[in-house]
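User: For my dataset I need records formatted as: sequence, then structure tokens, nothing else. Please produce one.
Assistant:
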Amino acid sequence: MNAELLIRPEAETDLAEAFRWYEDRGPGLGERFLLSVEAVIAAIRRYLRAFAVVRKQVRRVLLRRFPYGVFYFLDGDTVVVLAVFHAKRHPRRWQNRV
């Protein structure tokens, strides 16, 4: 199934900040980060319930090449992305978004 996708503004901000951070480290690295996020989101949309529930109805998928997780939940047939967080950040920061 290919579900609809909604990325919350806070998650968009997470993506923009991470992109800038990686791009400052090396040209093209930010783009590779975004491609990795896109691959994870495509997998989520195909396999909605295949990933671990980490809190209430929120699921998490870890990126392969970057220490980030994509946090999402399902709202009917829509995937709602809450956050794209570095693995070392305190989980309360994304949990407050639920």
